[in-house]
Amino acid sequence: MNTAQFTPAGTLTAEDLGTIHLIGVGGVGMSGLARLFLTRGIRVSGSELREWPSLAGMRALGGTIHMSHEASNLDGVDTVVYSSAIPQDHLEMVEARRRGLRVLHRSEALAAAMTGRRTVAVAGTHGKTTTTSMVTMVLQQAGQDPSFVIGGEISEVGSGAHHGTGEYFVVEADESDRSFLIYRPYVSIITNVEADHLNTYGDLATLEAAFAEFARLTDPDGFIITCADDPGGRRLAETLRAEGRRVHTYGEAADADLRLTDIASSARGVRYLAGIDGRSLGEFRLPVPGRHMGLNSASAVLTAYLLGLPLDAAEGALAAFPGVRRRFERKGVADDVLVYDEYAYHPTSMTLALQTLREVAGDGRLIVVFQPYRLYRTRDLQAEIAESLAIADEVVLLEVFGPGELRQPGEGSAALIEAVSLPAERKVFVDSWEAAPAEVARRARPGDVVVTMGAPPISLMGDQLLDALSARTADPATPAGTTPGGDAGGSTTIGGTVPGVGGAGVGGAGGAAPDGAAPAAG
User: Fold this and answer.
1) Cα 329 to Cα 16, 323, 402, 451, 453, distances in angstroms
2) Which pLDDT band holds residue 510 (cuts at 50, 70, 90)?
3) Active-site positions?
4) Closest Cα partner for 250 from 220, 230, 280, 278?
5) Pick from 356, 354, 398, 374: which is nearest to 515 by CA?
6) What number of other Cβ atoms are within 10 A of residue 358's Cβ?
7) Residue 197 — pLDDT band, cuts 50, 70, 90?
8) b vs e for 54-93, b when ≥16 Cβ sit within 10 Å of the residue's Cβ?
9) Contacts by 243-248 with C-beta closer than 8 Å and gap 24+?
């Protein structure tokens, strides 16, 4: 993607866009953008192929949702917005150009909404959504009423976007397609920099150069935050400081500006002490477990400190942080088996999530139901992904979700499952969506923890797992750890579809993932 052709932040305002139509409006990122515009009083329509949960909220705010892709959907529209998941030959894209309408990438429309605000942009290979949510809640607790667009929904809040009255605009900045290079942040937070999206960048050096370019777009009166514990973040900080830029770091490293000590994580949450320039800032706690969660939260504490906001606001916001949907989200318990859902699909985030779930499992076993996201990532990082999966006691593997990708011989989950260093009886590749819940019900025992992990569609499976586990107790003749009804069956391979969606794929754009329009879109 050539972002040099995009309209940078500050050139347009949201009001300049007139009536806006979003293609594939049900995706997390696109629905958040639609919600932002609607709450700002702008007329919005969108097209979809599936009734995603976010659509009801958009209709309630006055949005018009078309459950088909048609040229007539663009009647009365001034601006058409698309994501990187939408092909250029999509019929609504073709019609928009034929009519001479303004056509903007999602990032351009979001940049227009930022005009006139001080933007806090959160980038990085991992932790963007969680960190963006934490920064947003800290600013809210400090009475700032920020606008925000997040690539996920803050649990119990039920929204990934809001038009606020305050001066700050918090946004998750996506590096996957280089679109973060059109933003002009006041504060740039870069959580970490690791090899990913190499289909876009080719190698780690080019990816790191893009993060450096993003950081250089930061307002000279603002500042840049990176993680001192992350090698990529440390290299970035050194480069930028050598250029005379204002960079602040956080982490457990002895030379971190905001230093974390005494980090303790358990199933009840994580706590740590924070200090800066030799001065204690006190103790901070989160009700969600994981040392990496503590590290993410430290960037929010540092942001509040540097903006001159009261740190008791940061302490209170983090203590009440409810988590983010699809990030260590508890789905429920059935037949004494605890089911979680987790978005992780890169090996580093997978490892952190599975290590944390091990803490939660205690004496129980950990079973992961994993759907890899994108063939190129699964191929290039196969050894690392397999190593992460081996943390679990048992693995149920679905086929790679890679809409629009062509699978070559030897690629995909059949090869990945062979690379997982677990005994054959503790790992299985299932070639159909329908087979997975029955397979989990056969394997899970009371006291176990099961997590659905990976590509966006897998989030739809949690309720099916709970139903399959509950069915074991409904039939007294079926003890826990066996499959109700015998044969798991099923033969529908799902490389880019899920049941009930058919050939349209799982997104509103005829093959786009539900998160395909999200800031962190694979």
Assistant:
1) 38, 7, 24, 9, 11
2) very low
3) 128-129, 172
4) 230
5) 374
6) 16
7) low
8) bbeebeeeebbbbeebeeebbeebebbbbbbbbeeebebb
9) 243/216, 245/215, 245/216, 245/218, 246/222, 247/215, 247/223, 248/223, 248/224, 248/302, 248/306
Average pLDDT over residues 456-485: 67
Given this model, what pLDDT does residue 247 score? 97
Across 25-29, 180-184, 272-276, 505-509, least confident range? 505-509
Q: What's the pLDDT at 504?
A: 31
Side chain identity at 83, as an amino acid letter? Answer: S
CB 136 within 8 A of CB 296: no
- Average of pLDDT values for 456-463? 79
pLDDT interval class at 159 (50, 70, 90): low
Query: 180: Cβ–Cβ under 8 A, 6 or more apart, which residues?
Result: 107, 121, 123, 173, 174, 214
Residue 220 CB burial class (10 angstroms; 0-12, 13-18, ≥19): exposed
Of the candidates 453, 431, 426, 458, the residue with the CA atom closest to the CA atom of residue 442? 426
Q: How far apart are CA 375 and CA 345, in angstroms?
A: 12
The residue type of 361 is: A
Residues 6 or more apart whose CB falls under 8 angstroms from that of 301 comprise 138, 250, 258, 274, 281, 284, 311, 314, 318
Contact call for residues 26 and 457 (beta carbons, < 8 A): no
